[in-house]
Amino acid sequence: MKRHILILPILLILSSCGVLQTRELHKEVMFTDYTPYIEAGFYLSPNDYPGPHTPVGELNLTIDPAVVKADQSGYSDSIYQQKDQVHVVELDPQEILEMAVSEAIKRDSNGISNLKIEVITIDYPYYKTKGIFGTAALFTPVKRYIVSGVLIRITNKE
Questions:
Q1: CA 142 to CA 76: how far, in whole Å?
Q2: φ, ψ at 89 (rounded to 5°)
Q3: In Å, how far are 5, 21, 43, 49, 101 from 15, measured between CA atoms?
Q4: Which of 12, 30, 33, 128 is the one with CA 20 to 30 A from 110?
Q5: 67, β-bridge pairs
Q6: Residue partners of 7: CB distance under 8 A and separation at least 6
């Protein structure tokens, strides 16, 4: 019983060693400009198309940016070079929209209704090693873009 009484304060002390983490306001804006496509006669909207049209199909496009080895040419000493450091090649939001429009045009449609672009962060495993206790991996956060919508063919453009 005395052992339990001695262990309890030690457990309380060890469990209260957390570090309070704070952060400043973080704001990230993703803007895609529909204007060049609309001026070229392509319909883009997060809403249903109100006029006569023929649905062509549903678009679901998942885009992961490239992950490449980081340039370490600035390091002259091999001690400071990290063996498997990576660099995520970020994508421009207009590139993502261009990929979606390109896929729609390939399928003979001239519009995307109910367009939605979602951004989620995933952990990409860029280094795996096998040891006596199993496989260990190093991860880097990567933004995955998921584009969805209904491809339509507008028959009576005004």
A1: 29
A2: -85, 100
A3: 16, 16, 57, 57, 53
A4: 30
A5: 88
A6: none
Is the pTM here over 0.85, yes or no?
Answer: no
pLDDT tens-digit readout, 86-134: 788 889 999 999 999 999 999 999 999 999 999 999 988 877 776 666 6
**pLDDT at 30 (0 to 100):** 87
How far is the C-alpha of 6 from the C-alpha of 8, rounded, in Å? 6
Are the C-beta atoms of 42 and 110 separated by less than 8 Å? yes
Which residues lie across from 154 on neighbouring strands? 53
Say if CB 118 and CB 146 are below 8 A apart: yes
Closest CA to 44 of 33, 60, 56, 30: 33
User: Which two tokens mark 129?
Assistant: 């090693």
Query: Do 154 and 49 touch, CB atoms closer than 8 A?
Result: yes
C-alpha 31, offset from chain centre: 15
CB 140 within 8 A of CB 126: yes
The pairing of strands 134-154 and 111-131 is antiparallel
